[in-house]
Amino acid sequence: MQRRSKLTTTLLYVFGIIYGLAILGPIAWILLLALKNALDAFAYPPLFIFEPTLEHFIAIFEDPEFRLAFSNSVIIATGSVALAMLFAIPATFAITIMRGRARRNSLLTILLIRMVPGMIYLLPYFVFYSRIDLLDTHIGLIVIYLIFCLPLIIWTLVPVWGAVPLELRESGMIDGASLWQILFLIELPLVRIGIIASGIVAFIFAWNEFLFALVITRKKVVTLPVVITRYMGYEGYEWGKISAAAVVIMLPVVVFGFLIQRYMITGLTAGAVKG
Amino acid sequence: MIRRLIAILLCTLLVMNVMGQSDEKPYAGTSLNFLYLATAFTNGLKELEPEFEALTGISVEFELLDEEGSVRKTQLELASGAGNYDVVGIQSGNIPLYAENSWVTPVENFWGTDVSDPEALDHDDLIASTMAAMQWDGVQQCLPFFAATIIMYYQIDIFEAAGIESPPTTYDELLEIAPLLHTEEIPLIALRGNPPASHGNIWHFNSFFHGEGAKFFVDFPNDLTPTVNSPEAIRALTNFVNLKNNYGPEGVAAYQYPDVTRAMQQGTVVMVMEGAPLAGRILDPEESKVSGNLGFAVVPGGAAGPKPSFAAHGICVTADSEHQEAAYTFVEWALSFDTMKKISLALPQIAVTRDSLWEDADFIAKYDYDFGAGSFLKAFQDSLAAAPFDYYPAFAGWPLMGDILGQAVQEAEIGARTPEDALNHANELITQMLQDEGYLP
To answer: pLDDT (tens digit, 9 = 90+) per residue, B60-95?
Structure first.
C-alpha cells in the first residue's frame, strides 16, 4: 500500500478541520446562544466567556405547549418508525425474493414515491384529512410519514438483506419452513442491525419533519419543529428560547446517534461489497 | 298542593334562569379556532381568553405561528374551504386576495344585527387609515388591531458628538450628514434587505419610492401599466443603494428585521429606520445597550415629503366558519377599547388602532419614551399621519409584483445591475406578469 505524502496528509487534516468547524460551528453557536442572556446573546464582538444561564431551558420546559410538543414528537416519530417497519420488513423480504423486472420495477416505484416533492402530497392529504376528521391526530401524521419512511427503510434494507446467503433460505425451504418462518426465524435475526440503522434514519426524518406537521396539526398534536415557530414573534424572535428548543430537539438525535453509531455503520454498509 | 305549587315555581324559575342565560350568552358552548402569527396583541388575546369565555361562554383555541408559517397555513386552509378556523388574522396587503376569493365574511355584514354592539365596537374610534386598509371595494372586510409604520431611531450622543442638532428630514440632508456620522466601527444605517418581499427590502424601499413621488402605475386602478422605472423611482433606488452600500454594516443586503432591530439594540449602527411597534424591544433594558440614548423622528422624505411605510393587521371571520355570529362576537370583543388597552398595558403592544387609546393617560405613561430628543409617541403618531394607507397597491397581483420589485432592489444592492437597469428590467417583468394575470391586455 502506497504511503500518503506529508503534503497530502496535511491537506487532508486541514480539510477535516475546516469541514468539522463548518459542521460543528453552527451547533456550538446555538448551544452558546441557548446559554446566554438576551444582552450577551448578540454582543459585538461575540462573547465566548460569559455567565451562563439556564433561564431559556427553564422557560421552555415551563411552557405546557413545548412539553406537549415534546411528547407528541416522541409518539409520532416512534409510531411512524414502528408502523413503517411493520410494512417495510415483509416488503423488503418479498423484494429480495423477486427477480428481474418485477424486482426492478418494485424498487423503482418505491423510490419514485419517495422522490415526489412533499408539497404534491400536502393539499390532497389536507383536504382528505379535513373531510374524515384526521387533522390534528397522531395517527394522521404517522400515516403520512409512512410515505417517506417506508421507501427510506426499504431502500436501506435491500442491500443489507442481499448480504444474507441465499443458501440459508433454500435450506429452510428444503426443511419445510414456510416463508413466514424463514422471514421471522431465519433471516430477520441476521438483518437486525440493518433494521436498527434504517429505523434510526427514519426516526430522524420523522423527528425533524416540519411542513406536514405545520399544516396537519392544530393544537393537540403539534410537534417540536412547529412549536419553535411560536417563539418567532412578529415584534422579534425569542432567540434564547429558539436556541434552547433547538438544543432539546438535537439532543435525542445526537445521543441516539452516538450510542448506536457502530450499528449504523455496520448496518448501512452491509452488502456494499457483495459480488 | 303546596308541594306541587313549589315544584311549579322552581321549574318556572329554572326555565327563566336558563332563558335568561341563553339571552345573555346565546353562543355558550361554542368553540372557536383562531389562526395567525404570534404578535404581542394575539398573545395578549390568548392570555385574556378566559375573560372572554366567562363573558360569553365561547371558548377560543389559539394557534399562533411565525409570519411565513401563518400565511402559508392560513391561505391553504382558506383556499381548501376546510372551515377549520373561525377567525384568522390578515395583513392589509392580503385583503384583495382574501376578498376577491370570498375567503372572509365582511364584518359589515354583522353590523346592525343582534350580534353587533355599536357602542362596544365604536368603529369611528378605529384609526381611519387602518380601517381603510381593511376594506375592499368599499366594504369593510376585517377589523384592524395593529397599525404598523416605521420611524427613525438614532443614537443621540453620536449625533451630538458630530455637532448635528436635529435628525435629517430629507434624503439629501441624510446623505449630507452621512460622512460625519459613519465610521467603520459604527456604520451609519441598517435597513432591511433579504427577503425581497413585503416584509423584506420592499417594506423600506417603498418608503423611498413614495417619498420621491414615484407611482407604481399610470393611473391605479384604471390603468395598470407599470411605471416602476420612472426617474423618481430610479432616484429612490439610487439613494437606497447608496445608503446601504456606502453607509451600512457588512452584509446589510441580507438583513431581515430581527437583524436591523438587533443592530440598533446593540448600538452597532448609528440609526435605523424600523418599525415603530418594535420600540418595546429596541428599548427593552434587558436586551438593549442603547435604551436611554435614542432619539425618534419621522423618516426623511424626497420630493414628495416623508412617506413612512404602512401596513395594518386585522382579524376576520372566515367565510367557511360554521360559527359566524360567535366568531364575530369574538372579533368585536378583541377590538374593544377595554381589551386593546389591557393588552397594550400588559405587553409591548404599542401599535394600537384606537384613537382614544393614543390619548389615554395610562397608555401615554407607559409608552411616551423621551430621552431628551423628543417624544416617541409623537414621532409614531406623526409617522402614522404621513404614511400612505395605499403603501402597497390594493390589488391581488401585488404579492407577485412586490416580489419582482424586491428582486430588482436586491440586484441593484449587490451590484448585479445599476438601479436604472434593475428597474427597467423589473418594469418589463411586471408588465409581462400583469398581462399573464389578465390585468393588462
So the answer is: 999 999 888 898 889 988 988 888 899 999 998 889
User: Based on the structure, what is the number of domains in chain B?
Assistant: 2
Asked if residue A188 and residue A129 are part of one domain, the reply reads yes
Asked whether residue A144 falls in the same domain as residue A161, the answer is yes
Do A84 and A195 fall within a single domain?
Answer: yes
Instruction: Tell me which residue in A42, A126, A232 faces B262 most closely, judged by beta carbons.
Output: A42
The count of other CB atoms within 10 Å of the CB of residue B280 is 21
B316 with B255, same domain: the answer is: no
Phi, psi for residue B195 in degrees, rounded to 5: -85, 150
Domain of residue B58, CATH code: 3.40.190.10
- Please answer whether residues A13 and A3 qualify as being in contact, where contact means their C-beta atoms are separated by less than 8 angstroms: no
Query: B282-290 — which CB contacts under 8 Å span 24+ positions?
Result: B282/B153, B283/B369, B284/A38, B284/B348, B286/A37, B286/A38, B286/A39, B287/A38, B287/A39, B288/A39, B288/B264, B289/A39, B289/B265, B290/B155, B290/B264, B290/B265, B290/B266
Report the residue from B40, B258, B277 with minimal CB separation from A237: B258
**In angstroms, what separates the C-alpha of A130 from chain B's closest C-alpha?**
6
pLDDT band at B415 (very low <50, low <70, confident <90, very high): very high
**Shared-domain flag, residues A106 and A163:** yes
Is residue A133 within 8 angstroms of chain B, CB to CB?
A: no
The pair phi, psi for residue B429, each rounded to 5°, is -65, -40
A63 lies in the same domain as A45: no
**Given an 8 Å threshold on Cβ–Cβ distance, is A229 in contact with B69?**
yes
Specify the number of domains making up chain A: 2
Same domain, yes or no: B139 and B72: yes
Q: Are residues A120 and A252 in the same domain?
A: yes
Q: What is the rounded CA–CA span in Å between residue B62 and residue B224?
A: 39
Is residue B385 located within the same domain as residue B317?
no
**A43 — contact with chain B (CB < 8 Å)?**
yes
Q: Would the pLDDT of A218 be above 90?
A: no
B38 in reach of chain A (CB within 8 A): yes
The answer to whether B422 and B237 have CB atoms below 8 angstroms apart is yes
By residue range, what is the domain housing residue A160?
55-269
Min Cα–Cα distance to chain B from A166, Å: 51
What residues make up the domain containing B55?
Answer: 28-147+311-365
Residue B2 confidence (pLDDT) above 70: no
CA distance A109 to B55: 57
Q: Is residue A169 part of a domain?
A: yes
Q: Is residue B17 part of a domain?
A: no
> Is A274 within a domain?
no
pTM score:
0.79
Tell me the per-residue pLDDT of A14-29, one tens digit each, with 9 for 90 and over.
Answer: 999 999 999 889 999 9
| Contact at CB, A126 and B76, closer than 8 angstroms | yes
Q: Which of A214, A234, A235 sits opposite B73 (nearest CB)?
A: A214
Beta carbons of B110 and B58 less than 8 angstroms apart? no
Task: Please report, for the domain that includes residue A98, its CATH number.
Answer: 1.10.3720.10
Classify residue A275: in a domain, yes or no: no
Give the pLDDT confidence of A175-190 residue by residue, as tens digits: 888 888 888 888 888 8
In chain A, whose CA is at the least distance from the CA of B81? A127
**Residue A115 within a domain:** yes
